[in-house]
Amino acid sequence: MPIACVLTFVASLQFLLEGPGLNSLDILSARQTRLWHMLVAFEPTLWLASLLSVFGDFKRNGAVWPGPGRERLAVVFYAVFLFTMALLPTIVPLLARPSFLPANVDALTEVPHLQAKMFVLNCLGSVVSVMLACGMLSVHIQLVGRPLRNPSSAEETATESLEREVLRYQQLRAQLKRCLGFAGTIISVSILTVSAFNNVLTQAAPPQPDVLPSMAAMSFGIYFTGFLAIVYLPASKTLSEVGEALAAQLVRRSPGARATWKQWSEEQQAVRTYLGLEGSALQELQQGLALLSPFVASLSALILGAAR
């Protein structure tokens, strides 16, 4: 995967900088331009890494998409809805103000067909983000549809069935965490890319300082933080409920003798830690940052824009 990501990064730079490129422009800040280059090229690299990770989950355990047709249909329905919601921040400004970029933007940046390239990249980024959101939704749908399964055959004991359910729970938990991390990172990098592009255009065209206002990036951050919260929080709540049920069954079926309440409490604590129900403060912080990363990125973009 590292080699594929490096090749994707190089190919993305080539896609953006065909022709003379931006380095020949003296009117642009080299530092700001290079930052924009790196962020634009880094986005497809993140997309590839996230897709390889999700498809790796599917190849290993098949836990990415639900099995029954009814559950898959629900995921497809939500995918269409989420794709529309993800594109709204891009479509609405275009409808309200079609010429929000300077007419000579290609000449200013020396990037041929810049608007077409940005449109393609925005669409691809939205598709990948929606796929990751659907990965989180599929966790919720699978757990709601089949919270705990009964033994699949007469030969399978209750203990074997419980072990299978614990493995399924851990797979879905890892999938939810991974999808949230990638989705938050992709959206955050997109917001920072918009802010960096705004800085480049502001330096190139001082008469139009509000080409892409910093407050717009702030609005995007708030919007997409809510977008992630709507998708992630229900799945996380359902996952915790299933985890609590599994923890109760594991403690009840444990063969060890618990002579005292302290021993029972220690065993319960160990089971909850094993299932990830008792996360450390660092894990809780990482989860919160992943959920709030679009807002943090928009706040950073606002601060950097004010410091210009």
UniProtKB/TrEMBL annotation:
The chain crosses the membrane at residues 34-55, 75-96, 116-139, 179-200, 212-233. It comes from the Bacteria. The keyword Transmembrane helix applies. Keywords: Membrane, Transmembrane, Transmembrane helix. This is Uncharacterized protein.
